[in-house]
Amino acid sequence: RVVAAGDCPAARKSMQVFAAAYGSECGTCALKFIPLGGLYVCGGLTPKNIDIIEGQQSEFMKAYRDKGRVSGLLEGVRMEAIMVE
Fold first, then answer.
1. Residues 54, 81: contact at Cβ < 8 Å?
2. pTM for this structure?
């Protein structure tokens, strides 16, 4: 939460990199498994960092969708964040 407030530029940048890496891996998992019932992102990281994960323009979502010519496959995959640890 300190990072989200913008107190430290280095911490903010590291969280942006984290969010992009997390989103990219979620997108890769979605392409591997094609979960047409939805991809459920859960665990301690999701609820603790939801402020940098949510939103279509977040680094997480940009990296999730950035899959080149197969990006279109992700349009049919609903993603849900599980907020309980």
1. yes
2. 0.87
